[in-house]
Amino acid sequence: MVNEGKILIQAMVSEKATDLQEKQNCFVFKVDMNANKLEIKKAVEKAFGVKVVSVTTSNVKGKTKRLGRFEGKRAGWKKAFVSLKEGDTLELFESV
User: Fold this and answer.
1) Distance (Å) of CA 95 to CA 56, 59, 91
2) Tens-digit pLDDT profile for the chain (96 aa)?
3) How far apart are CA 50 and CA 3, in angstroms?
4) CA distances (Å), 31 to each of 19, 26, 59, 66, in order?
5) Using CA atoms, how far apart are residues 57 and 81, in angstroms rounded to an integer?
6) The model's pTM
7) How far is CA 55 from CA 30, 73, 86, in A?
8) What are the backbone angles phi and psi of residue 65, rounded to the nearest 5°?
9) DSSP string, 31-94
């Protein structure tokens, strides 16, 4: 069980995310790696006061990066696609 206040890490703003928001009323978040779909749904409903229809998650693998002869790896993270009930919207994304 993940701490409720730490499930949603960051709202993702990109071309694809904006397109999903306009066409399908779907918003994209960077979430805690250990959070499941039900926890993400509850966190979004509690934080923004909206009705969530579905949650789809995706694990993003970290990339390997090099600087000269030194090699390292970026951390992986989890992405959540949150679909809202028709008519609901998030004020966070209105100004973008």
Assistant:
1) 25, 28, 8
2) 677 779 999 999 999 999 999 999 999 999 999 999 999 999 999 999 999 999 999 999 999 999 999 999 999 999 999 999 998 888 776 665
3) 20
4) 20, 15, 10, 27
5) 6
6) 0.86
7) 13, 28, 15
8) -125, 150
9) E-TT--HHHHHHHHHHHH---EEEEEEEEEPPPEEEETTEEEEPPPEEEEEEEEPTT---GGGT
